[in-house]
Amino acid sequence: MTADTTTATQAPAPGGLTHRQIMTIVTALLLGTFLAALDQTVVTTAIRSIGDDLHGLSAQAWVTTAFLITSTVTTPLYGKLSDIYGRKPLFMIAISVFIVGSVLCGIASDMYVLAGFRAFQGLGAGGLFSLAMSIMADIVSPQQRPKYMAYFMGTFATSSVAGPLIGGFLSGRDSLLGLAGWRWIFWINVPIGLAALVAVNRVLRGGRSRGDSRIDWWGTVAIIAAVVPLLLVAEQGRDWGWGSPVSIACYVIGVLGLAWFIVAEQRMGDDALIPLRLFRARAFSVGSALSVVLGIAMFGGLATIPLYLQIVKGASPTEAGLLMLPLMTGIMTASMISGRLIARTGHYRPYPIIGAAAMIAGFLLLSRIGADTPLWQTSLMMALYGLGLGQSMQTLVVALQNCVAPRDIGVATASATFFRQIGGTLGTAVFLSILFGAAPTQIADAYQDAQGSSGFATAAAAHPDQLRQVTSSGSLDDSAFLQEIDKALVHPFMVGFSNSMDLVFLVAAAVIAVGLVLAVILPEVPLRTVSGLEAARAEAGRAAAATAATAVAKAGSASASEATGDAAVRTAAPGADPAPAEKTLVGGTSLAGAARPSREAGGTEEPAGSEGAGGAAGAGDVAPRSAQAGSAS
């Protein structure tokens, strides 16, 4: 390695930290995000075993719904509070709540108790993803940020593969150390969470309160009133009936809650949970809408593709997780490549456009799959879909962070996560409703078409009981028996179900077409080359300089009215000391120190007045500890 290469490797990044120091912080953040990402995939895989053990299979949906509701509604609150009180305390609170919730879930005695503990666990999960992204915005400039965010995409992909493996292994054991195997699904979060707490405490510095802001409690209550009923009907509407009285009540309450939220946010102004002024920026409003569409594509696709692999291809949940590896590889590859290209060129706008086009192509190809489509073809289609997602997700977060002031980075990041989760819930509900709404008709048509097959007729005559079972209306509620049915009798079922999937993927392609239009009109705001930390300091320095100039002007005006001519001559003489007002700001801080922050890698001092001048409170969370960590490592 040459000397030049060594210097380049250790040179500070635009945020003032070296790559090594940034990676130390990223490693700590990855532990927190891996914690939440792994939990979701593990629980999804094991939920049937949990329901069997707790004798509450019919209530399993509430275990997922409770977690989803609390994790979604708390996301904006974490973002706003982190802008006020700093990232570190909120991130550590989120991890701690998640750990306690995991312990409680592991000792649950029935499904409804488990649902309550999952709701508590979701209170912590709501801050893990968004706060990690906010901390990244504090320490890395928008232009360099995408290449580091690729690590988070890798964590998501890894958990998506590891989750089903771990969940299948643990839930498949009747007893492990004297306890039901599924309970360890939650308890494995404890050592991971404790490691994350230690790492975060080591590399992040404590945040400071920004005293000029209020907490928007009315906005918090209003967003809960708006979102909870809509999430409930999205999750349970298929069972309740979309036009049932309960569903209609949820629609009405949700709309009224949304109206209340808008009024509350208007009254709170800059202190609002999600300040409405942010939506005046075209980049933020279009980016938020695109986040919803991406959420629909991401979570809707991830919810339906495994069903095809399990029901049509006969894969177990664990095997389905492994078969999703091409999709996850596509996400990781695209995020890494696009991240480095954005860092090199400074342009992000092409990638959501290319990503949306790739997702449309992927969904159109997936709409052609059938019961007999080879897995290698399906894998290529999933990889194309993943390549589109990987180019879009992280790029959109950076775009939203880049178009707001440093003091709003937490809110912007949480908003991106919040809107993506809302879209994901909507996408999952709509896609599954389309799938299971079309499946009975498609399956019946497939069996009608199979009547002329000699193989089917022979199998039907030999196993009439199996034919009645596979064509019954309840066959979609539990598909495990399909592996025990004669292949000639079950093949029409597979054909009908895969035909229903085709309709789902066509709808998904149409939704992403809307996303493509949004990506085209998304304006490209030039990426800042300084981190949120340095941007906040610069903003604080300008505010301090303006305060000093005002003080100087006032002092000069007073002196001019009272001073003698000789005093005026002495003030203008070469080498004379400047007036006290020129050297000192309010509170005794020197003007030079306020306007010229130190450039030590990660060891800078916060300029005076940064909290009151609009600098993000979380911007000071990382510097000194990260520098120490980088040196130690």
Which terms would index this structure?
633 residues; mainly alpha; Growth Hormone, Chain: A; 4 domains; 25 helices; globular; disordered N terminus
Q: How is this structure best described in words?
A:
This protein is an all-alpha fold and 633 residues long. It has helices spanning 3-10, 19-53, 60-73, 75-85, 87-106, 111-139, 145-171, 184-187, 189-203, 217-240, 245-268, 282-312, 317-323, 325-345, 350-366, 375-402, 409-449, 454-462, 464-470, 487-521, 532-562, 565-572, 580-583, 591-595, 623-632. It starts with a helix and ends with a helix. 52% of the residues are buried. Mean pLDDT is 78; it is low at 1-15, 567-616 and 623-633. Residues 569-633 are annotated as: Disordered. The chain crosses the membrane at residues 25-47, 59-78, 90-109, 115-136, 148-172, 184-204, 216-234, 240-263, 284-308, 320-339, 351-371, 383-405, 417-439, 503-522. InterPro entries: EmrB-like, MFS, MFS_dom, MFS_trans_sf. One of its GO terms (cellular component) is plasma membrane.
Strand fraction:
under 5%
Order of helices and strands: HHHHHHHHHHHHHHHHHHHHHHHHH
Number of domains: 4
Distance from N terminus to C terminus (CA atoms, Å) equals 20 Å
Number of strands: 0
Q: What average pLDDT do the residues reach?
A: 78
- Name of the level-1 CATH class of the largest domain: Mainly Alpha
Radius of gyration: 28 Å
Superfamily (CATH H level) name of the largest domain: MFS general substrate transporter like domains
Work out the helix count: 25
Helix/strand-derived class?
A: mainly alpha
Largest sheet: none
Uncertain runs: 1-15, 567-616, 623-633
> What general form does the structure show?
globular
CATH topology of the largest domain: Growth Hormone, Chain: A
Specify the helix fraction band.
over 70%
The assigned CATH architecture of the largest domain is: Up-down Bundle
GO molecular function: transmembrane transporter activity
Protein name: MFS transporter
Organism: Parafrankia colletiae
GO cellular component, one term: plasma membrane
